Predict the 3D structure of the following.
Amino acid sequence: MSSLLHRTFLLCLIIVWSAAPIRAQVDFTSSNLPIVLIETDEEIPDEPKVPGRMRVIDNGSGQRNHVGDSPTGYDGFIGIEVRGASSQSFPKKQYGIETRDASGDNRNVSILGMPDENDWVLHAPYSDKTLMRNALAYHMARATGRYASRTRWCEVVLNGEYVGVYVMMEKVKRDDGRIDVNNLKPDETSGDDLTGGYVIQLDRPDEDGWYSAYPAPYPTSFRPYFQYREPAADEIVAEQAAYIQAFMEDFESRMASGDPADPQAGYPSVIDVGSFVDFMLVNEAARNVDAYRLSTYFHKDKDSNDPLLHAGPVWDFNIAFGNAYYYDGADPEGYHYNTRTFNNTQPIPFWWRELANTEAFRSDMTARWESLRAGPFQTDALLAFIDSTAAVLDEAQARNFRRWPVIGRRVWPNDFVGETYQEEVDYLKGWLSQRLAWLDGSLPVSQEASGARGLAVTAAAPNPSRGRLSFQVTVDAPQDVRVEVYDTRGRRVTRLHYGPVLEARRVEWDASGLASGAYLIRVEGERFLETQMVTIVAP
């Protein structure tokens, strides 16, 4: 089946599953969530963006927002288009938004407290009736110390019509506050200049890119497909396209060799192992049926900054966490990287399984899982995030499901169908608890694995702190270690250390000049990454 025919069939199936009911009118005047008002003079297409105006009403935490209030978050011009693949068939549309100035040029602004940029996504949860699966996954990814899109819930009015609960989020792109790699210019075609920064994506062959030279690890006539994301397909020059394709072909050939874990000839010399471990653990915890083959991003900076390929950021989890009937997506047991997609035009590359089955990588996964489960991936912590989110959404979800009455009805690709919003939330909590427990049993933490991490970090103290705090970094072998601090918006506050650690190093941090709040300490060695949250109380 051709890619076009397969996509057409999929869209037809979704339309049949989601045919009725479609919508109902809602009288909307105020919300505990921010309100986004969008006006356009023409129908919104799937490319190109059409001009419009957006007003954001956000009166602050604990304050009620009214449709008639003066805009406090944004009041200006935008370009807007429908976005997404299978989701385009849903009546509740998601949108790509570009903030612009009066002349139509990009305008970098902060939206709902997120760092300044001009490219945004209004995600429209529809088949995800908890409204929170994407936000949950990105929360988990950020808790590993990696970048993932920041999210803010809002209610949207489009051309005077209430269209429901949306999630304003950051589009995946190169930027200091997003994927922090160099901006590769067209004239950078040789030497170190040519080596970064790149963002590529495994996805459908509907954008310019190239097919992998290697088939999937099971019988299929299809091959994985890489898209150019940054530089974009219409901006990348021949030398740059050839470079990143050759780099990926070299990585894949190393994975296809008889010894992919060889320190020099195998994957350790070309990929950032920690980023691949975290990417797999977040996707496996969610059992994301799109993982490893769709919306799967990688990025590479210039060799002078970092010569390794990084996996991520994670993206698109609306049919994860038990929300898909196919590829065993609702089963809390089993690894998705082992899934055989057979006739699907986007197969899982062979090297995900090779990585996971390599003793060294598996040891890294096991040790990292132990670390995460002792910290941000604790079951109670994740369930508390779900409960607190459901409480915030409690008022708005009722309006959303009056507008889009899908509660109690099957929407593609639902496996479970709850009769109430709370039943949908309870299912998510129960499924995630079972999934985490299964992974605990599948990734047993042996004494050998615990000792293979190569990096240990003591708890920063005092915590909370009024300014000065310290902690110790210990390594099992001399290695370079980077210690950095980030705020809750993902901005680097300071670098505390970057260089060799022979055995142990005491790290001191004077945070007396910072505002009160939570900060993330990120400690990265050659093989592993540790993070911890600290609270600073300004005097």
